[in-house]
Amino acid sequence: MSRDEVTLDFGRGGRIGQDEAIYCGEKSAAQIATILDLAEAAGAGLLLTRLEAAKLEAVPAGHRGGIDYCPVSRTGFFGPLRPVSATGQVAILSAGTSDIPVAREAERTLRHAGQQASLFSDIGVAGLWRLTDRLDEIRAHPVVVVVAGMDAALASVVGGLVAGPVICVPTSVGYGVAAGGRAALDAMLASCAPGLSVCNIDNGYGAACSALRLLNAARRMQERP
Are 167 and 144 in contact, with CB atoms under 8 Å apart? Predict the structure, then answer.
């Protein structure tokens, strides 16, 4: 692949507070390797999303060894990684164990930006006590991300219990009429809990970016004279 076919956005962090991320889903191993060459030459770090393990194995060994890979979230960190600059600002709630890959994608995206999120897994409404037992811990976080499939009822419940922004991610988890996450998406969009923000199906990356925009806006407000 020619390097002329790739234009990386190394100025993104300065403009919007979020560094360049590379969606690897429909890219070949050769294309990914070229992108990593360019990032390495620039001394830049990258977040790699939707990177399947088989595709990672096809990336040249020299680059493969430099990727911090998480097979659950299918994400990788390449090159310099920001140190953790904040903890306890974002809670990520996973309704079920099956929703964890998307929740982990959100968690890893935040970590790449220097935010260490708190993950609360398997606290869906089928056993409501699992949520209520941890509600005080969750409320201690200014921003909450809710990841849920099936009927996505967790989003509405949480939306009525916490005061801060709630960012919802429907997942493609469920039988039949769950329709690959469409039922969860519609439920979140139609929620009677006011003020919820809803991302695309399985888009943990997008939810994390929304959380980062909120946190960056709050920080800029605090820094104003």
Answer: yes
Give backbone dihedrals phi and psi of 123, rounded to 5 degrees, phi first. Answer: -125, 35
Record: fold of 86-219: Rossmann fold (3.40.50)
Task: Quote the tokens at residue 8.
Answer: 């990386």
- Give ∠ CA 148-67-167 in degrees, rounded to 5: 25
pLDDT surpasses 90 at 86 = no
Distance CA(138)–CA(153), nearest Å, equals 17
Are 170 and 185 contacting, i.e. CB atoms less than 8 angstroms apart? yes
Return the closest-CA partner of residue 90 out of 74, 102, 103: 103
With vertex at residue 32, the alpha carbon angle to CA 31 and CA 38, rounded to the nearest 5 degrees, is 95
- Domain residue ranges in the chain: 3-78, 86-219
Answer with the residue of higher pLDDT: 151 or 11: 151
Instruction: State the amino acid at position 9 in one-letter form.
Output: D
pLDDT at 4 (0 to 100) = 65
pLDDT at 5: 74
Among residues 224, 93, 104, the alpha carbon closest in space to that of 154 is found at 93
At position 209, the amino acid (one-letter code) is C
